[in-house]
Amino acid sequence: MRTYIGTSADEIIGPDFVSSTVTADPPGTRPSDVAGLLFGDLHTGEGDLTGGNDTLMGGAGADDLQGDRHEGHGLLMGGNDAVNGGEGDDFLFGDVHAGEGDLIGGDDTLMGGAGNDELQGDRHEGVGLLTGGNDVVRGGDGNDSLFGDLHFGSGNLIGGDDTLIGGRGDDVLVGDDHEGTVTLTGGDDRLIGGAGKDNLWGAEGRDGLKGGADKDWLAGGEGRDRLTGGTGNDEFVFLSRSDAGDTITDFGSKSGNDDKFVIDAMGFKGGLEPGRLSSGQFQASNGHDAEDSNIRFIFDTANETLWFDRNGSKDSGLTLVADLQASATVEAHDILLI
Questions:
Q1: pLDDT for 65-78, tens place per residue?
Q2: Which domain holds residue 154?
Q3: CB count in 10 Å sphere of residue 317
Q4: Rounded CA gap, 25 and 138, in Å?
Q5: Which DSSP symbol is given to 304?
Q6: How far apart (Å, rounded) are the C-alpha atoms in residues 87 and 119?
Q7: Burial of 83 (0-12, 13-18, 19+ CB in 10 A)
Q8: Is the pTM of this model over 0.85?
Q9: How many domains, in total, are found in the chain?
Q10: Cβ-contact 81, 68 below 8 angstroms
């Protein structure tokens, strides 16, 4: 284990096959002086490189921190890296492969600071095979771009099961083709799942959530969100009335693309109980006035909107749940209560 201390505008490179700790903001150094380029293990020739388990910590400057980097030809096996950005605008990479050959990424943890960060679990820009690890990518309070496993070349990509967590800023989070969990904690954000079973969680703000080609779980959270499930039997989740008011672009009701609304009964109240919504609590009509006091959900066929009525009264209690795409249909069995 070796420790490298950065000062002002340094390039610090740990040797091959060595576990290294690199710190860009040591005690006694002013954070504003640090603008370093830090690498755990670097290999620029031809052959094999096995990276160590590195810990890289950026300071308050604009840092470029990379766990294992291979710029030549051959095989790179990344270690289990922890990469921490400071308060500056950082570029954090777990395992990077820019040549031709194979890259096997480790299980990385990347955490951005308060600046505007770009965090990527495993990135492959060449031609060949990328096997990504199970990555945890956590953005700070800035405007972040978070990627689980990203493939820019031609070949095969096998991604890990990633967890992407945005901060309070306006983030862009992109998963891969495996099952993953994507969570936002504020800002006007975009979440894009891959072809696996994705759990996409929005928060406050006007978020955009887009699932992939499998059964996805989309919860926009508070704010007027835009939800796209993609192909597969997706579930659009609303935990309270404050989560309502979203736009759903592709609600499906056919085999292979049979989507559902998942409604938290306790969060919406109105006498709802977990289970399937009874037909006596649902109506589809031209307009969204309840026909009797038992009605709780109304699908307005005039404009493809779904409404919740907590008391079945025309006078009060209406909440717009979602505005659906043209020609969409909703029936009682499309609404599940939890």
A1: 544 444 333 333 34
A2: 2-275
A3: 15
A4: 20
A5: T
A6: 14
A7: buried
A8: no
A9: 1
A10: yes
